[in-house]
């Protein structure tokens, strides 16, 4: 259901883009109005979402510890998987964000004959996940050649590196292939892995298909149906330098599809699970040092009487109830039995 | 808002990174190099039409190379007829044919290539200035770009 | 306690392939017993002032909910989203990559797709989406949004009480989404309308009143410690001191109440008594704070705070310098990650310092509570106790990391160091089943009841399977652990999945090996089992190699 819906949604979007390309009168909508709207929604949307998260405090320090804690000086702490300092946390977060440390641990449980279970290592999800994210980043950075003038220095390095094998003309970029291969894996996984299929929603298929469509149209334009790149760059630079121009008619419809879907991605991003990009930095199980017993962690609503209604049953109340028995057992008392007050505390009125 | 310091730093970094396509255009504004192509004054006809050449010239050159180097097919045809320049049959050659008309690499090829950050390896071998065919002896010394 | 189905029969019922039907269209069958817990008794619920005390059971048609129960829960959810960034974030950023799916012991043991941590969380997330997001309101099921119906509530009850808050999934999640946190808050929400279980509510009420989950009154506490003193005297010939509620002692010792009533916990208690006596430690027990565990943490932050508050309050009343805590699992999650924030900082205490070695426990300098294994490891390192590991030669041990000390603390090496110094035969289980990847006993977080037996055996299957592996390959005959719930429930798990293996505590082994000044020659271990004599030793050990890592 979610899959079908997503396929239809992508198809509709592509048709819209083709229509936009076919009707010259609509070109300014697609190449001027929409991109400004999309950029604004993306940047503002992401910030609003992060601020919404920031509005909730982190009341407890609930680090997930994945290694030895800092304890006695002669016991080796696992400083990256169980950091106790800010530096350690930065290291842990860097590993998490840049190399998907947690996903790297992934295992696969399999039921064997008899009553045996085996846990195999499985790095596919990690590998393709990493391949996708890194490829996407590099492809994005390479695109600076389309929207910056002059072109920043790093583009040339990335292009040289990315086209290292010098296959074909134009030279094949490895990240372009990587992007599409990884996305395809992630998509097929959602269809053929029964467990993953069971949990997948339209909001899982849609972004994958959207990205696949974006990558495919990009690759088509680079290697197969070529178009007037200079004209495209003039449109892009026009938008970004706030001097938008009317696009030349030599620009192919493929570009309109590609560009329109990128705009859809920007708009969709802040309201979707893609916000994990920002969320991963805020995850309290990862971004807090495991120094709970070393340093006091403040909870801003710790004195909320409406939340913490139940009060500690005090020692006095306890002794009042059990004084005679305690005396009989030879336990020291705060008050002597003869002085036992008749009344109890106020805490137990419901009893 | 809680942890405002760290979160604001994060947001600022986010803005800087994702607005970089905008502000990189503002840096060095004077150096913009929008292509300004000088078309040859003396020649009117090209091996293919202009829109095709704009988008696909690299494919064409690639095919030429394969034909010449691998199949020993040297001469160029257009509409099934030999393509002539200055009364001579044109060869499938970047140097002898393309650059006979477009004889200034800096004013023609480089205009778009620099704008789009394209570094084709054509000139790793070919010299970048048209010379009379009889003078053309491509060799290592001419390779410097 | 036994299950009708044989292990291989139960194992055959597991199928990781999910059903055809969409998960929102499946429901829970409470007619089939064995995989859920009975409802909290009204007396207990009322005693700790929790909402809607009444007689009800999950298998009944009418759960006797307040008329506006949906409103109460949604309002509660709104409040908690504002209070807990974790909740807000975990509702928003899951990408359903499925890395967590087969990490849950309940999923591995049952194959029930809603025991995949991702889907367990989606039960709450779907309601969040429906009520708090535009996409959910508009597109409903398509984007995984559903209304909070009675049917959904039933699933909440079933599946959020089918999570032991072990956090294994959280280790593997690329965003650190912690199902324990989600379960914690979901249970808290349900508790707002009086949906809870008796095995949590009654111990919590007991603890509130008598100071411990078992409801042992002060004189009973004294009796059981005296009983232990007699037993220890029989075994060692030494009569130990029993300081209880002693003002001015240096250290307050708090351990789970099961230690002085349950077996095999009791042998660990004997180990503590022997160790403290041998050290001539100036310490005290407390009858008021006679519970290390905190079943409040299985239902709400509110009850957790009230129960935990006794630690510091009692430390202050008795005027001790610092607190030492016994072997327990969730107790240490609460102490390590919550206590200081909930009821601290305890500025009236001193930074813990071992009176024997002089070691300052810098890692506890704010919360001022030290784990017994940190304390003992330090003693052994400084050679302050005499040990005879051969007294444990009738055992070949493996070590079960309890979920909370492993993933909510990182207490991994200390117990291993102790074990390797007090016994000669130790073998680790496979890497995917220990340390931060350790498997739960299947009965944590209040699920250790008889009525929940089938689900406990299913949840305990991954642990049982790993124990069986080292039993068959290495001759392991005792599973050591540092958690009262483990000690209570793992015997059932290993009897079922890996018979012939016993369960014990780390400090039981310390007590066995500890050479006490003036003791008589030991004939038995703390369980009254005869020790192996040197001449019989070789016969029994045979050709099994020793495997200390």
Question: How would you summarize the topology of this molecule?
Answer:
The complex is a heterotrimer of chains A (351), B (145) and C (549).
Chain A: H1 2-22, H2 27-55, H3 86-99, H4 101-104, E1 107-111, E2 117-121, H5 124-142, H6 144-147, H7 153-162, H8 174-192, H9 194-199, H10 202-223, H11 229-240, H12 253-268, H13 276-282, H14 315-328
Antiparallel strand pairs in A: 1-2
Helix pairs in contact in A: 1-10, 1-12, 2-12, 5-8, 8-10, 10-12
Chain B: H1 4-18, H2 20-26, H3 50-71, E1 77-78, E2 81-82, E3 84-85, E4 88-89, H4 94-101, H5 109-115
Antiparallel strand pairs in B: 1-2, 3-4
Chain C: H1 7-12, H2 42-47, H3 69-83, H4 85-92, H5 105-110, H6 117-132, H7 134-139, H8 150-160, H9 168-172, H10 179-191, H11 198-210, H12 218-236, E1 251-254, H13 265-279, E2 283-284, H14 301-318, E3 322-325, H15 330-343, E4 369-371, H16 372-381, E5 397-400, H17 403-407, H18 413-422, H19 453-459, H20 461-474, E6 478-481, H21 484-497, E7 502-505, H22 506-513, H23 534-541
Parallel strand pairs in C: 1-2, 1-3, 3-4, 5-6, 6-7
Summary, kept brief:
The complex is a heterotrimer of chains A (351), B (145) and C (549). Chain A has 351 residues and is mainly alpha-helical.
Q: Could you describe the 3D structure shown?
A:
The complex is a heterotrimer of chains A (351), B (145) and C (549). With 351 residues, chain A is mainly alpha-helical. Mean pLDDT of chain A is 92; it is low at 345-351. Chain A has 14 helices and two strands; from the N terminus they run ααααββαααααααααα. The longest helix of chain A is centred in the first third of the chain and has 29 residues, at 27-55. In chain A, strands 1-2 form a two-stranded antiparallel ribbon. Chain A has two domains: 2-282, Transmembrane di-heme cytochromes, Chain C (Fumarate Reductase Cytochrome B subunit), CATH 1.20.950.20; 315-351, no CATH class. Chain B contains five helices and four strands, in the order αααββββαα. Chain B has helices spanning 4-18, 20-26, 50-71, 94-101, 109-115; strands at 77-78, 81-82, 84-85, 88-89. The longest helix of chain B has 22 residues, at 50-71. Chain B starts with a helix and ends in a 30-residue tail after the last helix. Mean pLDDT of chain B is 81; it is low at 131-145. By secondary structure, chain C is mostly helical. Chain C has 23 helices and seven strands. Chain C has helices at residues 7-12, 42-47, 69-83, 85-92, 105-110, 117-132, 134-139, 150-160, 168-172, 179-191, 198-210, 218-236, 265-279, 301-318, 330-343, 372-381, 403-407, 413-422, 453-459, 461-474, 484-497, 506-513, 534-541; strands at residues 251-254, 283-284, 322-325, 369-371, 397-400, 478-481, 502-505. In chain C, helix 21 (484-497) links the parallel strand 6 and strand 7. The relative contact order of chain C is 0.12.
